[in-house]
Design a protein that fits this description.
2 copies of one chain form a homodimer. By secondary structure, chain A is of the alpha+beta class. Chain A is built from 4 helices and 3 strands, in the order H-E-H-H-E-E-H. Chain A has a 3-stranded antiparallel beta sheet with strand order 1-3-2. The structure holds a DNA duplex.
DNA sequence: CGCCATAGCTAGGATTACTACCTATCCTCT
DNA sequence: AGAGGATAGGTAGTAATCCTAGCTATGGCG
């Protein structure tokens, strides 16, 4: 049944953008930063990360540039101005969302059944 | 573009289960409880709520029983034992998830770019 | 009477994250 | 020397989820 496969549930984009706040990174490094920064919780397959980065690129939130390091080709991404704005908004949105969900999950925010 | 349409991002099931902790409710009342309990943030279309309830029913997490009140047919749902267990687990899962995401969104959890 | 709230439902589309697979280089261990 | 792992990039196809848009029907209010 694979119930909890979808671990990120729509919040991947914010996290990817957030990894780039400290400076440009290439795709694989982004994947590692996410894994290490979450104590292994968000250890995403490349089949999740790369398409997501392409999506953000197409959306104009990040820009990628190719280079070759140690014989391996790399695509280094950095935030655009739009990406930075988006991140700020999503960050705020996340806090509101999290607050709302947490409140609803408390033992008894629910009025008695009518 | 309809960017932020998917408001719930995979956490609908927990919330639906949570609305039933206070006792059985019929579908429409569940929808209302979610809307009112979130200050209108989670005002979901019925096309989201009903299929989700059917899903939870098929999964054995809730059970529904028909009745007629004031000439209107109602389907009243209540948590099963499995549903209660699931809710407890998801509740814990949410807190871990939220903590991880929040931590990653802080200004600088990211080590300097290599 | 018309309209809204209540109460239930479905079909189809868009998006998302996943599995599973592929190429290629460099490094380490046997 | 060869095998395998880590690094680095990618795609195709699938499952799941939430949405839009539409439908039926009753009761009550202006």
């Amino acid at each position: 049944m694979k119930a909890d496969a979808q671990a990120l549930k729509g919040h991947l984009d914010v996290l990817l953008l957030a990894t780039l706040t400290a400076g440009p990174r290439h795709g694989y490094a982004i994947k590692e930063a996410l894994r290490d920064g979450s104590n292994g919780r968000f250890d995403l397959p490349t089949g999740t990360v790369y398409p997501a980065l392409h999506r953000l690129d197409r959306a104009g939130l990040i820009t990628g540039s190719w280079s070759v390091v140690d014989g391996r080709r790399r695509r280094t991404y950095q935030l655009t101005a739009a990406g930075r704005r988006k991140l700020a908004g999503e960050r705020a949105g996340w806090h509101e969302f999290a607050r709302a969900v947490t409140a609803l999950l408390e033992p008894d925010p629910w009025p008695t059944t009518r």
